[in-house]
């Protein structure tokens, strides 16, 4: 007889917002906490803005690792 193992449910899970839309989470983070999440590959940015984001990221966190594949 196969009895499924019950999954452990973290008590902190109920405190997590139920949203799954990443753009809404990023927007709220900016508006509420002043946290800005930007991908240097975001197509909404022009070349100058993408380069600025890339340089800020490299200055604060170092160079990005090369992606394989």
Give me the secondary-structure topology.
Layout: H1 22-33, H2 47-61
Give keywords.
mainly alpha, elongated, 69 residues
Mean pLDDT: 87
Query: What string gives the helices and strands in order?
Result: HH
Radius of gyration: 19 Å
What is the distance, rounded to the nearest whole angstrom, between the alpha carbons of the first and last residues? Answer: 43 Å
Beta-strand share of residues:
under 5%
The low-confidence runs, each spanning 5 or more residues with pLDDT under 50, are none
What does this 3D model show about the protein?
By secondary structure, the protein is mainly alpha-helical. The protein has a domain at 39-64. 39% of the residues lie in helices and 0% in strands. It has helices at 22-33, 47-61. The longest helix has 15 residues, at 47-61. The radius of gyration is 19 Å and the shape is elongated. The protein starts with 21 loop residues before the first helix and ends in an 8-residue tail after the last helix.
